[in-house]
Amino acid sequence: MTELPKIVPLSQRSRRDFIKGALLAGVATSCAPLDPFTALGKTETAASGEMVKLLSVTGEIIEVDKAYLKPVPEMPVSNDEARKGMPGKKFVMVIDLAHCHNLKKCQSACNHAHFVHDHQNWIKVYPMQEAEHTAPYWQPTTCMHCEDPPCVKVCPVDATFKRQDGIVLIDSDRCIGCRFCMAACPYSTRVFNWEKPMLTPDELAVQYSPETSCPPKIGTVSKCDFCPDMTRKGELPHCVSACPNGVFYFGDMNEDVVTNGTDTVRFSELIRDRSGYRLMEDLGTKPSVYYLPPVDRLFPFEDGLKTKEEKHS
Amino acid sequence: MKTEIDNQIVQDLMPQKFGRPGVIWTTILIILCVIGFGAYISQLRNGLVVTAMRDYASWGIYISNFVFFVAISLVGSLITAIFRLTNVQWRTPLTRISEIIAVAAIIFASLAIIVDMGRPDRFYHLFLFARLQSPIMWDVIVITTYLTLSVLFLYFPLLPDLPILIKNYKGSKFEMWLYKFLGSFWKGTAAQRLMSHRAVKIISIMIIPIALSIHTVTSWLFATTYRPGWDSTNFGAYFVSGAFLVGAGGVVVAMFVFRKYYKLEKYITEKHFDHMGKILVMLALLYLYFNVNEYLVPAFKMKKAEEHHLMSLFTGNYSLLFWSVILLGMIVPVIVLLFPKGRKPTTMFIMGMFVVVGAWFKRFLIVTPTLLSPFLPIYDVPESYGKYFPTWEEWAITIGTLAGALLIITIFVRLFPIIPIHETIEEADVKHKMI
Amino acid sequence: MKRSRFFLIALSILWIASLQLLAQEEKSAIKVSIVYTQVNDQPPILKLTTKVKAGKKFTPLGGAEGSVWYNEETKEGLIGQFKTDKQGLALISLPPQLATRLDSLSPLKFIAAVSATAKWDEEKTEIEVTRAKIELALTEVDSVRKMEAKVLALKDGKWIEVPDTEIKFFVKRLFSDFPVGETATTDNVGAASTEYKIVIPGDLEGNIIVGAKIDDNETYGTISGMKTIKWGTPTEADNSFYDRTLWAARDKTPYWLLIFPNVIIATVWGFIFYLVYLIIRIRKVGIHDSNV
């Protein structure tokens, strides 16, 4: 059987992206791609008769029978697309503090997916206690992807930007490492790559895109990115899937539905019934992450201390 | 008689070759610059991890050093422009000193900020992808403008001195070439003098708002964030008043050094120190006033976010540094300089050093303690992230920039007269005519 | 003499062999499962899950490679090869040629095998799936909206009704399905229905996708039927991304920030250029004078 080059209809991808993707077709990206099956066994594929015009690797326009088209490995979108985002969507996250047990599964899943090391956690689970007589609780904190983001306002080179789907991303190819955004963020959510990231050759070979944020680059800022590469495929961010207690809900506010992988609920009802709030509302940053207060806790706060000890023993 | 006095002035004010102390001084500065440069190479190769800055204390002494340089560069506009416009008679010996301090400081402010960048290889991004909404962009624009204006402000009054140098100076071929290149065309004709005066007038007027702008915009690098200690509406005026103080202190130190080393007692007289002392008292009191506003008012309220920050300054980790800076950098100079005996040259020099060194540490106290008092707890990070003490690389690079600025001043003084010869002659003529 | 030497050799061989056996690592137990899924009339997709035993529980296993066959493990039956991702999942869509062939076949048998590695032995599983489909009807009578689903299965070449099967109605959303009503069970003619009372945002025109599905059924897999209908509230387009704000990109600077600072900068630098011009003129005058 002829081994056909992996080709995609011209209208869907820009040629440059395609060539890059073709070169990297053999390399697995760590950001959860759908792995295609490879050779179609030894059976001959019957031509369907329907012809499609396509652009080959060598830049020629060729006509191929539609039956021969196969799925292609996931390629990151272009920089321009990454800066525009997905139209008509407004991503929002709801974190249920009543169910957080400080297991830090969210942290490990996120770190693993984005090649982040333990001293630079993008998700931090804080032990919070507002006042002396109020109850302590565990608070997982991601980037808030604010609607009025102070970090984006102060960036001198447009390295961090807000997209139309509400996600705030960082372009590590543009960042000059001035760290003004880190000073401006009141949620202390940004981290800096002070040294050369310790990555395996496979991880280094991954094609960079602001949507995957990997591999991280020295001298640039990183932070939680709401996993846009996953949301483009209709999959939930890693932290949401990883939490065994269903603490993270994620969804599109325009659809008014959020899910934690198991339960799918109306966002407006969840916030109304469980009295959701946002962090540091009075600063006017208008975060996209809502919190459900730690009422009717599933676990006492002290249980979370045990997991902390286990981790550090 | 007139020509005798003139010649005497020229002889006194011509640039002199370095004696032994000068050579030792320059060598030390060069060594410090080289060490700093070597440390910077290490930083380029290994990344900013060689510093002690981490995710919480993400700005350290590089930034406070930058702010210090911007602050001290305001002196150019203080002495030269304001004194010129208000017709202060005794300003003449001090104008060039303050201008060269300003130029050297602003050049090294730019270098100091490049040193702090995580990706200096992408420096051109600031011009290619400039985003006007960012306060950093405003800072880049204003600093470039101020640097250009300061250089022009140094150059125009230097022009009349150049023919004097060309005629009288017996130096190397390079120096001759330099003077000829810069000003052999100055003939002192009426037309030229008219244009020169006009230029100096324009610059004197323009440079004041621009000088106020650079430090206001630099203060906005902090005031446009939400953090306790920085979230203040007062920051522009606070920084500008501090800048005037440290600038005046710097001039006093330079005055003393040049006077002593080049034997300029006739030109930089005790009267000058007396006047500068009074100005220093006024500026220090003004800065103290702003400090009281900045610290007493939030302390009165003790908002939750600010409590940790204020207590770390008043009684916590930074208390020793904080109170020393206030005491030795502001209060002691005020008290000492209130007395006429305190305004004698040597005492003034010591107080000037107190002011300048105090100001350097004060800038550090503005930058890093706020970053170590974030809104959310410092957690899920290595323990070292909660502290900051600069590494040897940071010290080496910082001291290297300071040495570099001093080197620029030293080289300038070696090549050009530190007191404007032409203007001094003119003043002497006026006095002579009046007698 | 000869016998004792032979005995010695045999003993040493046995000794080495036993050492090898002991040196072999203990292999972990793994599980692999297939779920057959199909939406409307689209080509079916096989969802493969691999799990490995860690301690007492089975956890998702990523990077497991294997092959999937239809009906028999031969060259003709090979559908394709897979490698599970970090969540232990792999999706294989049936190639169009096979899918069209399968239209008339039922039940379908699929076999999946995970290849042996140093860490685990080969593991196989097979499922037998009866082709099923859901016919979805959406009605609106006197402003009462109803979703009616009929489940049919392909048995002996004929589509027959399927009673007593759990069926769920939902509104399709980006990451999950939002349930409509309670989980229903098909009656004796394979039909189930629910009233649609939900007010939920749709796209700009109010379109939403609603459907009914059989979820992870042993016989039929996961089958769903979906339709687009204007039962959602229309949402307004949010164009705030294109506004000129302080947080927008550099091409969308607010007007006040574009105009005033640039005017000031232009004025100041205008003066600076004038000053440089003055220097040039001073120079000209001086040279002219010396030539005269």
Written description of the protein model:
Chain A is α+β, with helices and mostly antiparallel strands and 313 residues long. Chain A has 2 domains: 12-71, no CATH class; 79-304, Alpha-Beta Plaits, CATH 3.30.70. Chain A is 22% helix and 16% strand. Chain B has 2 domains: 1-224 and 391-435, no CATH class; 225-235 and 268-382, no CATH class. Chain B contains 17 helices and no strands. In chain C, strands 1, 2, 3, 6, 12, 13, 15 and 16 form an 8-stranded mixed beta sheet that branches. Chain C has a 4-stranded antiparallel beta sheet with strand order 5-4-7-8, with no helix packed on it. In chain C, strands 9, 10, 11 and 14 form a 4-stranded antiparallel beta sheet that branches. The mean pLDDT of chain C is 86. At the A-B interface, strand 4, helix 4, helix 5 and strand 8 of A face helix 7 of B.
> From the 3D coordinates, which CATH architecture of the largest domain in chain C would you assign?
Sandwich
Q: How much is the radius of gyration of chain C in Å?
A: 36 Å
* Fourth-level CATH superfamily of the largest domain in chain C: Immunoglobulins
N-to-C terminal Cα separation of chain C, in Å?
A: 128 Å
What average pLDDT do the residues of chain B reach?
92
Number of helices of chain C: 3
- What overall geometry of chain C do the principal axes of the alpha carbons give? flat
* Chain-averaged pLDDT of chain C: 86
Low-confidence stretches of chain B: none
Greatest chain-chain contact: A-B, 44 and 46 residues
